[in-house]
Amino acid sequence: GWLKENVPDIAATLKNPAQEAEILEVESVTGPLPTLVKEIYQVFRGQEFYYGDDTSGTGRSAINRERFQGMMGGYGVYDHRITIRMYPLKLAAQAARRMRLPTNILPIFGSC
Asked: Which of 13, 29, 60, 112 is the most buried (most CB within 10 A)?
């Protein structure tokens, strides 16, 4: 699709679609998820949060480049680099528990 053709680095971070069993597992903890949230995760299950080892010999540049591969963009201020990525489904459920959010509220996007 469009993402793969125009921003392949971001497309490469997308996880495969969530299966119904995984969604049901998360809902057993969070309560019923809104239909739109389920549909988003059935397209893809979030983004990888792994920053690979830099074997290019370019120091931190590969890691910094990866940091800007969030679906919602990224920015840098002074020596801070921020990107907004789509949380993988199970990570979003864990974050909701840690934040003590009401059931059926899932933090889909977050910074890293």
From this structure: 13
pLDDT confidence of residue 67:
54
The Cα–Cα gap between 81 and 103 comes to 32
What's the residue count for the chain? Answer: 112
- End-to-end CA distance of the chain, in Å? 26
Distance between CA 21 and CA 82 in Å, rounded? Answer: 33
Structure tokens at 21: 């069993």
Q: Can you read off the two tokens belonging to residue 94?
A: 């864990």
Task: Please state whether the predicted TM-score (pTM) of the whole model is above 0.90.
Answer: no
Query: How many other CB atoms are found less than 10 A from the CB of residue 66?
Result: 21
Question: Is residue 84 classed as helix, strand or coil in its secondary structure?
Answer: strand
The partner residues of 110 in beta bridges, in order of sequence, read 85
Residue 86's CB: how many other CB atoms inside 10 A? 23
